[in-house]
DNA sequence: TGAAATGTTGGGGCG
DNA sequence: ACGCCCCAACATTTC
């Protein structure tokens, strides 16, 4: 084996596992000695207002496990609480490594951070090498015949599938030689959440076991259900989805493992595996969109929709955030998010449609709220999803496609099981009335001792009128276009 | 990965 | 037997 580096520092970021980690495998393949570090980055954590952040706790538990695994191989994890852009070059110099290795991070702020680190390291003669790890195909690996990036999902997916080989999804080995992993200095052990300034006990580790072992357990559980994924995934009261998004976000499970399994089962005839693989491709799609169009972070992908006259409506926004819109399925969805940090995928569409169309509130407000609350928050996917729902994105739904929250509720939560779970004040209503309690007959309401406005809010907007308002706001843009062209 | 409005068809009630 | 109306069921188009 050719050793191109004597000492390497491997920097974990959103790849919190030892096994099947592209950058770590590269470090082990090329260095005599490998140090491992993770930084609780103050640039990210200090601005967080909510000190009860479930994600920090998830990371903490995942790091504890990662540290144990590294220790079993004679190494261990150095954990810092600092600004990564400064701390990494300082640590690299102190350890005397000749290279720092990490996996690619595609978010614009992370790209900027990595550039800062790269030039600081270069000033000390230390190399910075990064690797593809969190996607199957990145940036320019799947392009149209004319060499341009795709902006429509279906042709992207077809090209992605044509390009996929067993090699793209193979596992990277984790097999350090004796003495290859360096143990960290005692002073750099994992600090408690308390020391980091965060509250512990906010994450339900039964429902969401952390670390690579938690991910593996959850994946095994999903594999027992994957064949029914395509039928079950739209019903929020059912256990349809994989719930692996958090693990994908923090890299406690590698995307390659999921793709290998999904592909294999699809080939064996599983329709559920085929549909689920498609969801994994959506993830690559949005990463690729963000890499090519970083401006979507703050702007509509479709520039003309920057002209939409969104409403300023602090009360409406507050009601949406709190799950008090008076539309049971929307409120149940928002309360699920607030209580657990998770929201079912169909409900993300329903809730986002309601905010951007029914309330005509700027998608950026909703995107920021989800960013603050979602355990699986990922800039690329969250932004893509919001712009899809708002009709401002690439391959977005047409603006006139407006979800009817009552129909969606009747279709996908027919017995009101999900609503009853998160909006208990509606639990005593009948299956027929629970989707739109304001339509309940007075006799029926009295029989259930239910009073609209007292027990549950009246709808903050009327569906038909809100729909018409959204249509005309979006239509105004198109007319503006036409007159500008003339 | 919609929904609503509009158009078409065909059966049944009824004079 | 026939025309007429109503309306459900389905198809198409429009937003």
Description:
- The chain has 486 residues and is of the alpha/beta class.
- The protein is 48% helix and 7% strand.
- It has 21 helices and five strands.
- A five-stranded parallel sheet has the order 3-2-1-4-5, sandwiched between helices.
- Helix 14 (328-340) packs across helix 15 (345-358).
- It is globular and about 80 Å long.
- Residues 482-486 have low confidence and may be disordered.
- The protein binds a DNA duplex (15 and 15 nucleotides) through residues 234, 345-346, 349, 353, 388, 397-404, 407-408, 464, 467, 471, 474-475.
Helical content class: 40-55%
Global mean pLDDT = 96
First-residue to last-residue Cα separation:
68 Å
Question: What's the count of strands?
Answer: 5
Strand content: 5-15%
Task: Return Rg in Å.
Answer: 24 Å
The helix tally amounts to 21
Topology pattern, helix = H, strand = E: EHEHHEHEHEHHHHHHHHHHHHHHHH
Low-pLDDT sequence parts = 482-486
**Adjacency order of strands in the biggest sheet:** 3-2-1-4-5
Name the shape in a single word: globular
Largest sheet: 5 strands, parallel
Quickly give the structural class: alpha/beta
Key traits:
486 residues, alpha/beta, 5-stranded parallel β-sheet, 5 strands, disordered C terminus, DNA-binding
List the helices and strands and how they pair.
Layout lengths: L4 E8 L9 H9 E11 H4 L8 H19 L4 E6 L1 H12 L3 E5 L4 H16 L3 E5 L21 H11 L29 H4 L14 H13 L5 H4 L12 H6 L4 H13 L3 H22 L21 H9 L5 H13 L4 H14 L4 H11 L5 H11 L15 H8 L4 H6 L19 H6 L15 H23 L1
Parallel strand pairs: 1-2, 1-4, 2-3, 4-5
Helix pairs in contact: 4-5, 6-12, 11-12, 12-17, 14-15, 16-17
The structure holds a DNA duplex (15 and 15 nucleotides).
């Amino acid at each position: 084996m050719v050793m191109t580096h004597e000492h390497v520092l491997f920097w974990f970021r959103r790849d919190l596992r030892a096994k099947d980690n592209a950058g770590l495998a590269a470090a082990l393949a090329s260095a005599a000695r490998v140090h491992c570090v993770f930084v609780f980055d103050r640039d990210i954590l200090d601005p967080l207002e909510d000190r009860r952040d479930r994600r920090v706790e998830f990371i903490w538990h995942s790091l504890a496990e990662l540290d144990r695994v590294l220790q079993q191989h004679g190494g261990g994890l150095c954990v810092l609480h600092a600004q990564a852009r400064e701390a990494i070059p300082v640590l690299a110099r102190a350890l005397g490594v000749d290279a720092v290795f990490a996996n690619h991070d595609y978010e614009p702020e992370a790209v900027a951070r990595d550039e800062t680190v790269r030039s600081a390291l270069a000033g000390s003669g230390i190399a910075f090498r990064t690797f593809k790890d969190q996607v199957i195909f990145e940036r320019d690996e799947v392009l149209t015949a004319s060499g341009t990036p795709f902006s429509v999902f279906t042709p992207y997916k077809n090209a992605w599938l044509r390009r996929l080989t067993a090699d793209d999804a193979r596992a990277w080995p984790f097999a350090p030689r004796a003495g290859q992993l360096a143990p960290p200095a005692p002073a750099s052990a994992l600090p408690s959440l308390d020391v980091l300034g965060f509250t512990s006990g906010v994450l339900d580790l039964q429902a969401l076991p952390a670390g690579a072992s938690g991910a593996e357990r959850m994946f095994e559980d999903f594999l027992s259900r994957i064949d029914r994924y395509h039928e079950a995934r739209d019903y929020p009261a059912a256990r349809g989805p994989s719930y692996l998004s958090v693990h994908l976000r923090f890299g406690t499970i590698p995307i390659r493992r999921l793709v290998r399994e999904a592909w294999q089962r699809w080939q064996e005839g599983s329709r559920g595996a085929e549909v689920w693989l498609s969801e994994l491709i959506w993830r690559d799609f949005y990463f690729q969109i963000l890499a090519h169009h970083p401006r979507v972070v703050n702007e509509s992908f479709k520039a003309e929709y920057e002209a939409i006259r969104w409403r300023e409506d602090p009360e409406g926004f507050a009601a949406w955030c709190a799950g008090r819109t008076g539309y049971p399925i929307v409120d149940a969805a928002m309360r699920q998010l607030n209580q657990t940090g998770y929201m079912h995928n169909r409900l993300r569409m329903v809730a986002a449609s309601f905010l951007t169309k029914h309330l005509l509130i700027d998608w950026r407000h909703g995107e920021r709220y989800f960013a603050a609350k979602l355990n699986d928050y990922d800039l690329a996917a969250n932004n893509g999803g919001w712009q899809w729902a708002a009709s401002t994105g690439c391959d977005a739904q047409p603006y006139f496609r407006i979800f009817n929250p009552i129909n969606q509720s009747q279709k996908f939560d027919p017995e009101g099981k999900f609503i009853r779970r998160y909006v208990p004040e509606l639990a005593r209503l009948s299956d027929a009335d629970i989707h739109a309690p304001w339509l309940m007959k007075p006799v029926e309401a009295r029989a259930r001792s239910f009073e609209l406005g007292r027990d549950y809010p009246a709808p903050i907007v009327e569906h038909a009128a809100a729909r018409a308002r959204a249509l005309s706001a979006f239509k105004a843009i198109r007319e503006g276009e036409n007159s500008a062209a003339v």
